[in-house]
Specification:
Layout lengths: L4 E8 L13 H13 L5 E7 H8 L11 H12 L1 E5 L11 E4 L3 H9 L5 E4 L3 H9 L5 E7 L33 E8 L5 E7 L9
Parallel strand pairs: 1-5, 1-6, 2-3, 2-5, 3-4
Antiparallel strand pairs: 6-8, 7-8
Amino acid sequence: MARKVRITMYMTLDGFAALAAGPEDPEADREFWDVMWNGPMHDVDTLLLGRRTYEAWAGFWPGHVDSDNEHWRAFARFASQVDKVVFSRTLENGAWTNSRIVRGPVADEIARLRSLPGKNILVAGGVQLVQSVLEQDLADELCLTVSPSIIGRGLPLFRMEPTRDHHEDVILPGAPGRHDFQLLESRAFRSGAIYLRYASTTPGKSSDA
């Protein structure tokens, strides 16, 4: 079976790449981790990360492989074991185990990884990397957890180019910049957040559930 490239990200109602945390709720927490990470990570063996995300994760997750929090512990062990491909022109070395730095084009590396045997490939941040993967139609699936919050600041998940002189109410198929997806799964969390899993409908991409 061909390896899929999956993007997994958080988003607020106003389009920023952030998770708006709610009140503590152990059941909601378990539900979130099971859907967003614990289930999907069993079919993934490679993470694609931008420099900032990699540095943040490398400074946090290795210290939680024996965490009292079962969700943190599971993800920390998963993240430490899988291959981590870091796209950066400035990072000198990746000290976190199983890390490799790539300085060339994202599309070239994804094509190389697809040609190799293995499990699926997960794009987990940062925003510039996600935007590049989406704009080049390199992802098979897009998984979003949308928080029911407007935060008014942050990094937009999708690259936005406002047009001041012309407003279009209807964007037709094939329009420049339009990328279409098929809904595979949706789920409402106890917190009010919504999980959405889409398949790319770009020709040549898989739409299997």
